[in-house]
Sequence to fold (334 residues):
Amino acid sequence: MKTESEEKKNPDFPEKKEESEEKKNLLSSDDTIIRKKRYKDKKRKNKKADKNSESHHEKKEKKQLPWPLQVMYGIIMWICLLIDFIYPYHYLKNVIAFAQSSTEEASKDVEAAEAKKGTYCTLKSNSLDGVGVYADAGDTTQIAYVPEGKCLQLLSNTIVDGKEWAQIDYCGINGWLPMEQLHFISQEAEYIQVGSKVYMNSFTELGMKGYAEASTSSEVVKEGIKYGEEYEIQVLENGWGQVTSGDQTFWINMYHMGSYNTKTWKVQTLSSSKEINLREEANEEAKSLGKVPEDTIFTIEHFQNGWGQVEYEGNTGWVMLHYMIPVEETSSED
Fold:
């Protein structure tokens, strides 16, 4: 009797061989089916992925605009940015324009309240040039000067750039100066006019000069005019006054002259001494009766050669008008 192993080796058992081969073929067939299924699944996935990729790419291509439209879109974006920048600028500009127009309207309202016409006095300082006069309100170039601490006529007033200006006339000089450089004296005509009595108000070692015409370039007619010499004005022209002394007629520069048209005066030395002498007579050589302090106000009725007679602390004497300025009558002390 043969063993099982022998039966396996024996070719005489075809059933066993066929069964083995059939099983092998079956396993091979199952493996092929599985691999094919895997291949198909993988191919299906790849195809689906490719389809999704193509779909995404198509969508991307659909979203991308043609280059002319892209350029136009870019230009529109820049225009929008410019509008965003320019609009606030124009808005601010309009706000400023509105504010300026409001200011101008307010200025017109202020301008409607005219200053009192009449006599004003220039403020006094230590300036050697005097107060500048301009051709128009708001100008920056001076056309003439008027003396400090002297009376002039106010013709009108106006507002320019928020600043008040006064149109004035001083001995034929007509122009504009800042209102802040004036103080009110009276609504009466207390400024220098034709017929006014004036006196020389300047100190020089050799004295001032009188000219044949209203110009320093003309012939000198009179020399050595000292402080206090008095004249009556016959003609006024552009800051000059024509006068007569004896048999001489000549022109004097009114910048250096003072007048007696006002009655109320205040001591204003603008010096470190802060006081002036009360003299027994109307000259610097006369005896001093005492000192009169700065800002003392007097009502003066009598004048002589640039001096005014006053009463102070029981003494009657004379004070030099060169160290005084006219003030409003209501400012005087009782």
User: Anything to note?
Assistant: Residues 1-17 have pLDDT under 50 and may be disordered.
